[in-house]
Amino acid sequence: SSLSSTYGYGNSLYGGYRSGYGTGYGGLGGGYGLEGDGSDFLNRAEDNSRAAFQAIESIVQAFGSVTMMLESTFHAVHSSFRAVLGVAENFNRLRDHFSAILSTFSLIRALRYIYNKLLVLLRIRRNNLDEQAWNQAENLGETLGKPSQNDGPISWPLGLFAVVAIGGPWLIWKIIKGLESSNGKSRKSWATGQTDHLIARAEHDFKSENQREISFRRGDTLRIAPKDRQPRIKGWLLATLDGENIGIVPYNYVKILGLRKG
User: Fold this and answer.
1) Which of 109, 143, 177 is the last residue of a domain?
2) 92 and 193 fall within a common domain
3) How many domains does the chain have?
4) Kindly report the CA angle at 170 between 165 and 171, in degrees rounded to 5?
5) Concatenated DSSP letters for 93-153?
């Protein structure tokens, strides 16, 4: 009986183990079922939102393509502009070189004239310069009177090409320089009183600490730039004292008197 009870105890123990294992598997099975439901929900949500995200991605890519196109266009225009300026600068250098060459020829001609004069003064050569001048003038007249063999339909296209190649970049360069100078004058016209500006009186002495600032004394009259010319610096105004030196002054050191028409 003790053995049977022992075995029975063992059976019940084994049975307890079996029941425990069964419960554990059941619990694990229930856990697997919940995880499967969550995965299905995530898959369905991802499938439903995939089209919307693809549309958003297409829109972003379209904007990126437009931005790249505009950037490429800007770089192309900027490169062309710099190329035109480079051509104009090279033609200016070429003109300077031609001027130097012509001045060299003039110097050589002057030296030859002095050399011939010295030979005449030293009685090494006869004074026949007048006769040589008449001969040169006669030869030049005969040369100009003869029709040139090169005159033909090819001469004027070459001349037109030379005018366009040299005059075009030079004209563009002059226009750009003119625009820059006119913009600079219009920006500083308020300082000379030609356009509208404000009048202010200095209430305190001020000593400039850098090149951007201007110094003044109490009682000085300053011209203040209009609102659209003012820098975006809090507490500072763009002004001038003599119409030439332009700089910033502290706002609390001056008193605005009114608007002055240009």
Assistant:
1) 143
2) no
3) 2
4) 105
5) HHHHHHHHHHHHHHHHHHHHHHHHHHHHHTTSS---HHHHHHHHHHHHHHHHHSPPTT-ST
Same domain membership, residue 203 and residue 128: no
Q: Verify that 203 and 133 share a domain, yes or no.
A: no
Q: Which amino acid is at 23?
A: T
> Which residue is it, tokens 């060299």?
104
Amino acid at 22: G
CATH number at residue 221: 2.30.30.40
**Amino acid (one-letter) located at 246:** I
- How many CB atoms neighbour CB 193 within 10 A? 15
Distances (CA, A) of 153 to 148, 150, 161, 162: 13, 9, 14, 15
Quick: pLDDT tens for 185-241. Answer: 566 788 888 888 899 999 999 999 888 999 999 999 999 998 888 888 889 999 998
Find the domain containing 117 and state its range: 1-143
In a domain, residue 249? The reply is: yes
pLDDT at 158: 66
Inside any domain, residue 157:
no
Output b/e per residue, 137-172; b: 16+ Cβ within 10 A: eeeeeeeeeeeeeeeeeeeeeeeeeeeeeeeebeee
Q: Is 123 left (phi over 0), alpha (psi -120 to 50) or beta?
A: left
By the 8 A CB rule, do 193 and 223 touch?
A: yes
Instruction: Give pLDDT tens digits for 62-88.
Output: 888 888 888 888 888 888 888 888 888
Rounded to 5 degrees, what are φ and ψ at 239?
Answer: -150, 170
